Amino acid sequence: MALPAIGDARLQPLAGFSIQARVLGREDYRLGREAEFSPTDLALGWGRMTEDAVLSHLQISQSSRWYRYRWNDAPPIPLQEIIRSSANMHMIPADDAVAAALRRIERGDRVRIDGWLVQVEGEDWRWRSSLTRDDSGGGACELVYACSITPE
Q1: pTM tops 0.85, yes or no
Q2: Domains and CATH numbers, the chain
Q3: Are 47 and 78 in contact (CB under 8 A)?
Q4: Nearest 5°: phi and psi at 115?
Q5: Cα–Cα–Cα angle for 72, 111, 6, nearest 5°?
Q6: DSSP-assigned letter for residue 48
Q7: pLDDT digits (tens, 9 = 90+) for 39-65
Q8: N or C of the chain: less Cβ packing under 10 Å?
Q9: How many CA atoms lie less than 13 Å away from 120 in the CB half-sphere?
Q10: In 3D, which of 55, 53, 114 has the Cα closest to residue 89?
Q11: Rg (CA), the chain
């Protein structure tokens, strides 16, 4: 599968991607090399990370391409489940229709996203998606070339 170049950067598909998730947060970006490709990050949750009873005990924030969660006293579900059932995803819209759908997404929405986990490679720069859900911290975000985004 060949994906179109964006400017002077090549997109290499790493794995097919499809998710049904709840939007835990969104952050838009205009500055920096990454913003040329991915104007929006979505913090997404699935499994028990879609439930109000769980989310009401978490404070969720995003900034500088990071997704953070905190809780008082104890986490509402085991920490490893939070890590495996939520992620910050850097969204690369495949076309204008997907970009428009991405702009309409708000915290709390339930969405389906189909596309590819990718690596973006420029002449002197590379940005690569995580390919596992057991990771957290630097390099753990998914880089998603979104072919479709639909409300659920």
Answers
A1: yes
A2: 10-151 (2.40.50)
A3: no
A4: 170, -135
A5: 105
A6: G
A7: 999 999 999 999 999 999 999 999 999
A8: N
A9: 20
A10: 114
A11: 15
